[in-house]
Design goal:
heterodimer, A: about 550 residues, two-stranded antiparallel ribbon, 25 helices, disordered C terminus, B: mainly alpha, two-stranded antiparallel sheet, about 75% helix
């Protein structure tokens, strides 16, 4: 029953989406609206209902398992769905962002609204599938399934340079997807597992770990392949332009949810299954992650276009996730998971609000804005809160993500240099965040902006407000009570990340670049002892 | 009721008030002041109830908030004598300021936002006071920063407010950068961030503390308490409404830095403490000099706040955290009084803030003027007023520990009397120097009432032996320690002579030099170069502006250019090989219909299916 519900979160939006594509295009009635809302909110309702029913005693830590033969059994491929503590928060994230995006989109005045809604619903269905898949083939399949509507939407609504931008996005994302597909297939091949599910792979690899070279090569494929999808430096340049061009709903769903596919893959598959491969690449994870934070952070600072600024800031925040993964600890992985949820919600909120702001100023150029506080007070409050969330103000979910990642970085003294550099990001993001608030909200409205006498008609309307509220309340919920996700995530992460050898080899890999600190505490001495012990054991086993 | 419930009520009353103001919508303009007032009264009543309930002030409670692997993070309350003293001060001062705001902001159309912000600030401030561990302190630490940002930016259409609010938040973030790393390192060092547990661990093994952790943790203090070199935000923060300056930027939030130091005292090594002492003394003198070259009444008071925070830091660095707390409490009352007095003057003069354009206000607003002058005398440390007791104790302790610092602190006291003398003689005596000042008249009772109450406190709060409920335990402890020093009597005499000389010379000297109600600044006329030097404030603001505009922004622009041109243009897009081939391939696919993607996708799918089925 519950697993059927889980499946319905995928097929219902899809069917409604297809209906929107088939039905006459230029009509928009309240029954259309109702249909769209049903499709958009069904996964949301299902996700929270399943959350309340979740018990982590299923096979391999998965709950609500659902298996459907698809005719590909000879390849070991089944439509195998289920949720564990890691995928559940992301499942809820995509349902939440999807609901907000579709509600917001229903209000837009586009001539081809039904096409737009239809594509968004299909995208949502793909997203729900991505995070509900246990089978790696379908994990990948649903990702592609959600990606294609993104390209189509950029092509249709992408503004003047849409062809170039869509092309660039397509090249990057296809390349990334291709590399990670090769990586996944290689992993499946090498593991000798009899099915393409994560559970089977885990078991096979636990019995028979891969050699270090193979691990390293496969991890490199997955790291760079998935990294491109998450806009890892220097493969990020598709993201800001793409988001700037994409229509709001697509930008919200892609930047907020679909992009998390790559990090989710690293978190749930690549690092736990390829520990020694990952540790060989840990320095790269740190360095490229730091480039994301520091270089892209500074690049964000010089953006004048609001949507591009948000796009770059989203690229920047992904850097925290990469360095969090490089800690190879439960704490770091938990931080990454919370950050993924938080960032998804906050960046979706920012894209949503940026469009609302655009409607008031008829421009995305921040230097041409000003005085939003006078034009639309409620919208201003939302924007300030959204910026505060994205720069990690406590009370919003982003804070816990960043905090846990920072804390995990400091566990090993050899990794602390990463912390000192990465934490500079909290200053950089405050600078660009407040700068944008200063330009948009503060000051007086520009002369050419038409301001209605009645303030209510300038400010947010009902669906703008509701969709923004859904996102901001979710951010607050996780920010105030991180336990709602962290406890379950902890249970799921514990078996994946509790291996001592991972962290010790990782720390030795990174420590080459560290100056030794003269001050050593009792605890760190103990840690060091344990580390070297674990390292010796590791060498012995080899 | 048990203590936990009351603590929760105290903490959440202002949050609820703030949320109610936000949620009532259109009616908020009308009801906001009343709701905020109810919130403040609620805090005061429940605080009193708490004091009656808990006599010995030792309570701890914590919740497990988040846990991953073996790492668990807690949030929790601590309610001890230090917290209780702070709580008493904050609840009284904030009630006075809320009442005053009802008058001051009565014609502001955005007072809903104002009172919601004020209540939210109260929530965050109380959170800092009641936190039992560093992580929770940090949470609320950032939230006070956020509410301060909102309130400084209250007049958001003014460019000044825009700049000032951003500056305040970002400069504080710089301090928080160090503070956050310090907290994280503390966590790994001790396995907890609970302050009591840390104090216990340090008590057992003093080698656990280190310069690095101490030095990082005090970054938070340097930012929040606006110490050099992160002091630049505080004078600019005067762009906010005056009651906000009184509450946040004089009495409570900036003092939170000192409060933090008192809490983490055990984590600071001797070298770090000495550094704090010298830093504080430097700021006490530096800010005193700066105040002479300011004409805005609020900015003069802001520099005075900086200088007094320097005093607190100095004495804390010398090892007397109780005396620091004492000065924090007395300062909170008289500085809140001075700011509200300034607010009354500004209100009466139709938002004129330059002291050159005031003058002769004593006759026009006697209540305000009298209370302001009493506040000034308390600040200068005149015998019998609250400032005297705490400043006296600071000077005796300094004399005992470090003679150089003592001399500098005496110089600071002299400067304080000098610039405050300049302020009161110029503003209240002589004749009105502008039309606005000429038309000024006494403020309404809703504004003068809080002034009178605060005046009473400014006079009496120095008598710490009479504090009710045994508040200020560590204050008495440190004072007793002073009294039992070997040469206490002779030192006390020295301090009495020097301290009194400082304020007498300062006040009279400024009267003689500046004259009554002068129109132009005499120092500026006589020694323009000296005045210009003082006005430059060691060019710190210029230095930061240079860094931000010329270095940081340029670096950002250059990186942005490189990102655009090099990465996008040449390396990625121009690169041949796989990307290029893919691009050509995709270009073919892309031509024509939109759903070509879908077509190819499904072709691939069918191929796969056929392969699997065969």
């Amino acid at each position: 029953m519950h697993s059927q519900l889980l499946f319905s979160a995928i097929w219902l939006p899809f069917i409604i989406g297809v209906l929107f594509l088939i039905l006459p295009q230029n009509k928009s009635t309240s029954s259309y609206r109702l249909l769209g809302i049903t499709g958009g909110f069904w996964p949301f309702v299902v996700a929270w209902f399943l959350y309340s029913q979740y018990q982590s005693d299923g096979l391999g830590g998965y709950c609500f398992e659902f298996i459907l033969p698809t005719g590909l059994e000879s390849l070991g491929i089944y439509l195998h769905l289920g949720l564990n503590g890691i995928s559940l928060p992301l499942f809820i994230l995509s349902a939440t962002v999807g609901a907000a995006a579709i509600l917001y989109a229903l209000d837009s005045k586009d001539a081809r609204l039904n096409l737009y809604i239809g594509l968004l619903l299909i995208m949502l269905s793909g997203l729900m599938g991505t995070f509900a898949s246990i089978d790696l083939f379908f994990f990948y399949f649903f990702h592609e399934f959600a990606l294609i509507p993104t390209f189509v939407m950029v092509l249709i609504w992408g503004g003047l340079a849409r062809r170039v931008i869509a092309l660039e996005m397509t090249i990057y994302l296809t390349l990334g997807a291709l590399l990670s597909l090769i990586g996944l297939i290689a992993l499946y091949q090498q593991s000798g597992a009899d099915s393409f599910t994560m559970i089977a792979l885990k078991e096979a690899l636990a019995n028979q770990p891969l050699s270090e070279t193979i691990q390293s090569n496969i991890f490199a494929l997955l790291f760079f392949g998935l990294g491109i999808l998450v806009s890892l430096f220097p493969f990020h340049s598709w993201a800001p332009k793409g988001y700037a061009a994409a229509p709001t709903g697509a930008a919200m769903l892609h930047a907020g949810v679909l992009k998390k596919f790559g990090l989710y893959g690293l978190l749930q598959i690549a690092i736990p299954l390829l520990p020694s491969g990952a540790s060989q690449w840990s320095l790269w994870l740190c360095v490229l992650g730091l480039c994301n934070i520091l270089i892209i952070g500074l690049v964000t600072l010089s953006q004048k276009d609001l949507k591009q600024m948000i796009g770059y800031s989203s690229v920047m925040h992904m850097g925290y996730a990469f360095i969090g993964l490089a800690t190879f600890s439960i704490l770091g992985a938990g931080g990454v998971l919370l950050l993924l949820v938080a960032h998804g919600l906050s960046v979706a909120l920012l894209f949503l609000l940026s469009t609302s702001i655009y409607k008031r100023f008829a421009s995305f150029d921040m230097t041409a804005m000003g005085g939003l506080g006078k034009i639309a007070p409620n919208l201003s409050v939302f924007y300030v809160l959204a910026i505060m969330a994205s720069i990690g103000l406590p009370g919003f979910a982003n804070f816990w993500g960043e905090f846990l990642i920072f804390t995990a970085l400091a566990e090993n003294e050899s990794m602390r240099w990463v912390l000192y550099l990465a934490a500079l990001g909290i200053i950089i993001s405050a600078v660009y965040g407040l700068k944008s608030v200063g330009l948009i909200v503060f000051g007086n409205p520009p002369k050419h902006i038409q301001v209605f006498e009645n303030q209510a008609s300038n400010d947010m309307n009902f669906s703008e407000k509701t969709s923004a509220l859904i996102l901001i309340l979710s951010l607050l919920l996780v920010g105030v009570f991180p336990k709602i996700f962290s406890d379950r995530a902890n249970e799921a992460l514990e078996p994946l990340y509790n291996s001592q050898t991972i962290s010790s080899t990782a720390s030795t890999a990174v420590s080459i670049f560290t100056s030794t600190s003269t001050e050593k505490s009792v605890h760190s001495d103990l840690d060091a002892c344990e580390d070297s012990l674990a390292l010796n054991e590791g060498l012995y086993h080899e | 009721m048990d203590i936990l419930t009351i603590l929760l009520i105290i903490l959440f009353t202002p949050l609820v008030a703030s949320l109610v103001i936000i949620l009532i919508g259109k009616e908020r303009r009308k009801w906001a002041p009343a709701i905020a007032l109810l919130g403040s009264i609620g805090i005061l009543i429940s605080t009193t109830g708490l004091f009656l309930e808990s006599q010995e002030f030792s309570y701890q409670y914590s919740w497990e908030w988040l846990s991953f692997g073996e790492n668990t993070f807690y949030l929790g309350f601590v309610f001890d004598n230090i917290g209780a003293t702070m709580l008493a001060m904050v609840s009284i001062v904030s009630l006075c300021i809320t009442v005053f705001s009802m008058g001051y902001m009565s014609d502001d159309p955005a007072r809903g936002r104002y009172f919601a912000g004020l209540s939210f600030f109260m929530f965050s401030m109380l959170g800092i006071i009641l936190s039992s561990n560093l992580i929770m302190i940090f949470l609320f630490w950032e939230l006070v920063g956020f509410s301060s940002y909102l309130l400084i930016g209250h007049y958001f259409d003014k460019n000044e407010a825009r700049q000032a609010s951003q500056k305040a938040f970002i400069v504080n973030r710089i301090g928080d950068f160090g503070f956050l790393i310090g907290i994280i390192l503390t966590y790994w060092q001790f396995g907890t961030t609970n302050l009591e547990a840390i104090a216990g661990a340090v008590g057992v093994d003093a080698s656990l503390i280190s310069h690095l952790i101490g030095g990082l943790l005090i970054c938070g203090f340097i930012g929040k308490s606006a110490q050099f070199p992160l002091h630049v935000w505080l004078p600019d923060a005067m762009a906010g409404p005056t009651p906000v300056s009184a509450l946040i930027h004089a009495a409570t939030m900036v003092a939170a830095g000192i409060y933090l130091l008192i809490r983490i005292d055990c984590l600071l090594t001797l070298e770090v403490l000495t550094f704090i002492a010298y830093l504080g003394t430097f700021v006490a003198v530096y800010a005193g000099f700066c105040a002479f070259a300011q004409k805005d009444i609020k900015r003069i008071l802001a520099y005075s706040t900086l200088s007094q925070l320097g005093y607190m830091a100095a004495i804390l660095g010398l090892g007397y955290s109780g005396i620091a707390l004492f000065h924090l409490i007395t300062h909170a009352f008289f500085k809140a009084l001075l700011f509200l007095g300034a607010g009354a003057v500004i209100h009466a003069c139709h938002h004129e803030q330059s002291i050159d354009k005031m003058g002769g206000l004593f006759k026009k607003m006697p209540i305000t003027a009298t209370s302001f002058i009493i506040g000034t005398l308390a600040l200068c440390g005149v015998y019998g007023l609250s400032g005297f007791y705490s400043k006296d104790a600071i000077l005796i302790a300094a004399l005992d520990s470090n003679f150089q610092l003592f001399l500098l602190l005496i110089l600071g006291a002299f400067l304080t009397a000098g610039y405050m003398g300049r302020l009161i003689w110029t503003v209240f005596l002589g004749k009105a120097n502008s039309e606005n000042a000429d038309h000024a008249h006494e403020v309404s009772p809703i504004m003068s009432g809080p002034l009178i109450v605060l005046t009473l406190f400014a006079v009496l709060v120095g008598l710490n032996h009479y504090w009710p409920f045994g508040l200020g335990g560590i204050v008495s402890l440190d004072l007793d320690h002073l009294h039992h020093l070997e040469h206490y009597k002779s030192m006390h005499k020295t301090v009495l002579i020097w301290g009194s000389a400082a304020w007498i010379v300062g006040l009279l000297g400024s009267l003689l030099f500046y004259g009554r109600g002068s129109k132009a600044d005499r120092l500026q006329d006589k020694a323009p170069k000296l005045y210009a030097f003082l006005e430059s404030r060691l060019w710190m603001d210029e230095l930061y502006a240079f860094y931000v505009n010329k270095i940081q922004q340029r670096l950002a622009d250059i990186l942005s250019f490189l990102d655009e041109v090099l990465l996008r243009g040449f390396i990625i897009r121009g690169g041949a090989g796989l990307v290029g081939v893919l691009g050509v391939g995709l270009r073919i696919l892309q031509v024509g219909r939109l759903n070509a993607y879908y077509l190819w996708f499904f072709v691939g799918l069918i191929l796969l299916w056929l392969y699997a089925a065969s």
